[in-house]
Amino acid sequence: MIRWLKKFRVTLVVVVALVCFFIWWNNSRGYDDSAMASIAVDESMDESSILEGKDAGGKLEPSFNKYADSWNEQGAVDAADFKLSIDSADYTAVSESGTRIESGLGDRAGDAVALIDEDSWVEYSFEVPQDGYYQMGMSYYALEGKRSAVVRSVQIDGAYPFYQAKKLEFQRMWKEDGEPWFDNQNNEFNPRRIEVAGWQYRDFVDSEGKVYEPFRFYLTKGKHTMRIQAVREPGAIGTIDIFSPVHVPTYEEVLAVYKQQGYKKVDGQLIKSQAELSTLKSDPTLKRIEDREPATEPFKKDSIVLNSFGGASWRTGGQWAEWEIEVPESGLYELGARYGQWFLNGMPVQRSIKIDGKLPFKEMDAMSFPYKAEWQVKKFGAKDGDPYLFYLEKGKHTIRMEVQVGALGRMLETVTDTTRKMSLLGREVIQVTGTNPDPNGDWRLEQNITNLVPRLQLMAKRLDDTIKSLYELGVNEGSSEVSTLYEARDVLLSMASDTKSIPGRMLQFNDLQAALGTWVNGLSKQSLLLDYLIIKSADQAWPKADAGALARTGTMLYDFTSSFTKNYGGIGNVYEDEKVLEVWVARGRDWVDIIKQMIDEDFTTETGIKVNVNTIPAQQMQVLLLASTSGLAPDVALGVEGEIPIDYAVRNGLVNLEEFSDYKEVASRFRPGALIPYKYNGGSYALPENQNFNMLFYRKDILEQLGIKEADIPDTWQEVMDLIPLLQQNGMDFFYPHAPNNPALAINEFAPFLFQQNSEFYREDGMYSNLDSPEAMEAFKLWTGLFTNFKISKQADFYNRFRSGEMPIGVADYSTYVLLSTAAPELTGWWGMKPMPGIEQADGQINRSTGGLAQTGMIFKDTEMKDESWEFLKWWTSADTQERFGSELESLLGVEARWNTANVEALQRMPWQSSDIDAILEQWEWFKEREVVIGGYYTTRHIANIWNQIVLNGKIPREAVEEGVKEIDKELRKKREEFGLNTEDSAKEKAAEGGVSP
């Protein structure tokens, strides 16, 4: 037996080794064309006609690349020798409201048209002398707004030529307000960023940086109109320029000019411009960050020093930063940078580099920064060639680096188009097989779906071509960023070779679409970290990229040994005084840095109350419980999950906020329904900081094609149920969120149906579950009926399926709004958001009640600074503080981190578009949270079980609900007895003592 076990162990080791070798080999391989070798794709076939099908997204404008390709095929060429400047005051038409005339803005004399309100517009007429391509741009002045970039759309002759013209971004200018500040631990913190007012000029370019050059607009000879419309933020227009496309010379052409002018190389010069000292930037999210590599300048081993620039926040097309340099003599210099690019595994990123506002030559529009998991020195030059030479006059110059995604632009567009075609094909399969097909049935898909096999093969070919292009671009062999494309390509080929397997693989097919959508979004982010720029003469050696193994090892050892004594929880100034307010925050470090800076600058300055702030891990509330039971609880905790305060209140661990005389005034900052979860036994024990909320999202273009006007978008669940069959007949679906891997979310998914039936989760002060009431039964039937009777998807990536058109309408939270606003430019103007559906009441009103339990702030009972804690909580939840925190957070992390504050007034001040904030506020009129009771975790658990029993196991709703309620009531009773709360038996005893019937 022992000998057999030894042999088995050896065999197992060999098998594991072989598997590991195969995985390594598969991941480290370069391009593999064997999968495509056996596929005979007819190159003479018209790919676009084969792949087009019955595309439900046909109303969308083409991309710029498709627009240009179409005109190129018709022989379009650049216009020559033309330039026209139109003063903004020389308009031919203007909207009746939302515009005004500004005089004397900045250093510009005269009048300028300012578009103030969203959807305000101004129109100009102009004439061009010949057919051809023209480029355009305008000077602009960003007026005071909500700190976001100014966004405008441009129509030519009453139409958008391509979808990117619907969202042209004109960035503001930002600079640091003073020097960095240091806490009393000598750690460095970023200074505040303030906006710099002034006129700027920008060509009409792709706001995502996915097109190298400014847009070309094809115009026919004669008169045309241009309408500029406000999409976001107020701004004034100076002049509009229309001109022949600009020819940027190549390096070879510039080098010939150098020789002709007799320019000479300088000697003995090595200048480093520290990247963290940028003079201007396009975005307040661009800031100084810390790097612990010893060669990064400057370096301190004992404290935080912000010694580099950019990183993960410097990643979005169009973001730029500018540095001022000074050279001691005129001549030819070499340029470069010390940089870190370890963000996209194996993928190079690009930057457009301008000197004194202009591209020195064409190659600088796409300077590549290869991937490496450590610091590198980049010589600005051709790949594997000598550094370029740059002529600089003696004196000051500016160097601007802008995020450029142009090299990937067409590839990302190809993958996005392929994903959309996959979605279209999936809808056609569903039209044949239904939503729950027999995977073993013979559906004869090839006979029922036109060009099924060629379409699958051509989609695989497009992905294969993209893989080749990525390797040609310089992607490292074995890059994990290519694996998604390999997988999708191989699945498409496999389906093409065995079409009978397609119905049984639709889940895999849909998952691949989501993976490709995520892949496109990921590669659109081109992060780069800079230490310093290098300006040097050719006779000087390039600086070393790193400090060497010995120095790095020493730093690592020092950091390791000091980690045993360093306080990682404390943020900013740490006070040792006896009377200091201790605040714990369950959020990320970047978030807490902002909170602490605001406390030191505003709260402590105004009140004199000193505050220590510590971070605790989010989602680990047991840390607070352990601290509380051991007598080490803080005075105030922020970022506490909404269900937690009652757990402490029932244990007499929190201060009843209603003890304070101005509680009602403070509570009026929030929707009344937002305070429900924090009430217990006649008291209130927390204030909401933020709150989630669901909305109804819809695709205008697709619903219009189905005959549904925007005014007819569903307002009630009955209207939703009337719509679903129409969607499914066209291979589409409605989305309602369900998270099967997170049962805790089921209660929030069910809550709207319950509240809209005018029911509650509990009765008799939380003594019993109310889920067996007639109203709750109706809510369960309506909720689960969407999945059983109407067969909507039980799980889906709504963002990607909404984008592809497969799910043109559905309910989702505010994070979907952020995604659609920032990462779906092709849908600009083609999607909308309104309050979620509800149930019509007897008085004709539609009850849209829903909640969105989020984070709270609370005061611990053991505090010796009760009044100071209340002052802090009042300050933190005030409109001014919440607005500033939201602005600072968005400035630091981008619009993806938009703060969904619970303060109604602060929410209105955030940079939402007016139509969107109106819809949100309408939904908030019905904002209602569920009651949180002791033992309520059983309600959460069994609501998920009830859904599973009804939807997955086919159980009758009443049976499933009654079984669940039985278990919930048992746990509620048990917990109430444990904490000495009123139960049925105790109620009977009290009633008997009083001589009355309970």
UniProtKB/TrEMBL annotation:
<dbReference type="InterPro" id="IPR050490">
    <property type="entry name" value="Bact_solute-bd_prot1"/>
</dbReference>
<dbReference type="InterPro" id="IPR006059">
    <property type="entry name" value="SBP"/>
</dbReference>
<protein>
    <submittedName>
        <fullName>ABC-type glycerol-3-phosphate transport system substrate-binding protein</fullName>
    </submittedName>
</protein>
<feature type="compositionally biased region" description="Basic and acidic residues">
    <location>
        <begin position="979"/>
        <end position="992"/>
    </location>
</feature>
<feature type="region of interest" description="Disordered">
    <location>
        <begin position="979"/>
        <end position="998"/>
    </location>
</feature>
<dbReference type="Pfam" id="PF01547">
    <property type="entry name" value="SBP_bac_1"/>
</dbReference>
